[in-house]
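Minutes, project check-in

Agenda point 3 was the complex the collaborators sent over. CS summarized: two entities, 828 residues total, and the question is how they sit relative to each other. Sequences were read into the notes so everyone works from the same version.
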Amino acid sequence: MLKKIRVIVSLVLVSLITLYFLDFRGFLPQRFSFPAEIQFIPAVLALNVGIIVALVMLTLIFGRIYCSSVCPMGIYQDVVAWLSKKFTKKKRYTYSKAKTVLRWSVLAAVGITFLFGFTFLLGLLDPYGAYGRMVTHLFRPAYLAGNNVLEAIFTSFGNYTFYKVAIYGLGVFSTIIALVTLLGIGLLAWRNGRTYCNTLCPVGTVLGFLSRFSFFKIQLEDDKCNSCGLCTMKCKASCLDAKNKKVDYSRCVTCFNCIESCNRDAIKYAPVLPRRKRIVDPMPAYSYDKPSKSVDSSKRRFLSATVLTAIAAGNLIAQETAGKLLPKKELKRQTPIAPPGAIDFDHLREKCISCHLCVSKCPSHVIKPAFLEYGLGGMMQPLLYFDHGFCNYDCTICGDVCPTGALKPLTVEEKRQTQMGQVHFILENCIVYYDETSCGACSEHCPTQAVSMVPYKGALTIPHIEPSICVGCGGCESICPAIPYKAIFVEGLETQNRIEIKEEKAEEIEIEDFGF
Amino acid sequence: MDRRNFLKAIALSGATLTTIKDAEAMSILTQSFQTTQAAKYDLVAVMGGEPEVMFRKAITEMGGMKNFINKGDKVCVKPNIGWDQPPEMGADTNPKLVAEIIKQCFDAGAREVVVFDHPCDEWRRCYTNSGIEAAAKAAGAKVVPAHQESYYKEVSVPKGKNLKSAKIHEAIVDSDKWINVPCLKNHGGAQLTISMKNYMGIVWDRRYFHANDLQQCIADICTYEKRPVLNVVDAYRIMKTNGPRGKSPSDVVLAKGLFISQDIVAVDTAAANFFNQVREMPIEKVKHIANAQALGLGTMNLDSLKIKRIKI
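CS then shared the predicted structure for the full assembly.
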């Protein structure tokens, strides 16, 4: 019974969270973001006290329910383990000793690097973030391809329920990480069940520590149990020692498989009253949810400066060689453009675990994972690129969906005033300048007229830029038809600014006649 | 389906076919009656009404939609849905006008009406926020996507000077008739965007236009052999500055105008003159109009045309 409830709840939650990632048409309303918001690390990073308290209480009362039913990575492993049983008939788990040193070392490494502002390791190992990347880089292309097949069929009958979507590669590095995660964790799950959860997963270690003190526990009843070992064979966390009639509660993920397996009804899930009077500290001795954290900014600056200099040097060399061959200038972005609501690079680097929900959800396909643009600590974090489009002026989806608060939710008004980058114009690359023909594609796309067309020769108009009112959406850069090098581009800003938009008074114009 | 149901179905469809035939015969009668009665103009200009009212007046003066759409035609209506802006901004064609045109097409016997545009902003937001998708669907049209290259077909444009071929949306290529429904507004590059500039929404690669003398390419694409049967210029709200996207409502003037003609050069000349009253815009600056006249697409000499002016 308990197992059935567990299976149903976990399948519902994992389906919802996966669909929420995949749903590019906005069928699922915004409130279906909750399976992402109740994830442990996102809640910690978003300082969502309600959810943290709820998850801690849940664990202290019922054990690691989070790991068995809420965490999508946990459920993914269960699905893989279940499949493995279909292929290997006599699949049995064995009890193994806890890898306590490994678990705590990994947690310590994650915690320490995080405190030093290097969130990459946390993002890499956080089960939700890792699952998000699997969905974004591996499941999503398949989902979109399926959509396109349906589109082809329906459209051939004149039915336009489906529309085509482009499938883009979103960066080799993140895709490889996602693939390694899928195969690595999948292989561990295929062989030994929940190995990842009880070795590498930082959430598993924290909740495992808490669950040792949980009120409800799996217990072997001494008088009924004959140590037959059936339950041990079913325990995918390898934490049930039937010989000694003991359970390692730090690893038990409350899947209830053991209860179902027992022929003698010797396993119960019931409250435990402490045998001895013990003072139990309900808070974990070690938690990385410490409100005050000292950031070694000099070290961070050194790291990012190194990377930046390397990039800049490379660019300089490239420019020099290019300059000799071609009359036009190639200017590449020196500073990446963070998505709207990122506040500044430090905020993004600290809060983002690279789940890539924003990457999946961006309707304009302008968010992709970074490689080294933000430095080592910002690998896989989102940045804007304008190969397939530009950031739509009134769109606020990325901030709305971000579960960690790395991208703040913005109102449309706030979004319009958020400056993510500033426009740069290279006159000698501009078509109006070198061809002396009309263009204006950049200004056409500019929502604030930071790029406007001013009188030039004869009837021609030429772009004029006003970087102070530029939002950095990349409309101009994306559409600029100049080849081989664009005449206009956006340079990112380390810290996002608020721009003032002047209210213009409407003129009263009366039109009396046709004018011809 | 058992035999009885099958027979019933046959009987029913037979009966329907007969009635349809009757209706067709009747409408052919009324059509010829209408056309002979209505005076024919080269261009009709209307002022002072709501978009759908002005269009009804104008199309009646042109002899009714039946002059342009035949029974069973597959019609494509091509508004401007370029931007993620509400109708109040005048950045896109007025949805009421689009709906009225679709209705009239169906009344004239169109088999199917398809609506699309190749937007600049994110296409789902443009289709929704312009109000055009909802209005067109309510009027019975099919609203089709245009955001992917695979929806476009390569056609040659032999009469073009700079543009010799282009990828044009299949909804236009596969249609029997198409109606061009632009809105009149300022444009940073082309100075004005009217009927001819609206062609840029039927092509896939617009960057080519910008890179190869925009004003010539706009005229060139209009030489594509399948011409619109009508150009209906929506000047209900005119974006006078900061076009084509617009910054704020102060860019917009409620002008309540509408121009309709088969001559794309004439209708754009008329609309440009109308715009000139809102903000100075000498017709010479809108070079693609003269370029199109040079290609023989129509005349800028409005005095040589039979024009009907209506003020409501």
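Noted in discussion: The longest helix of chain B spans residues 3-37.
Follow-up: revisit at the next meeting once the mutant set is ready.
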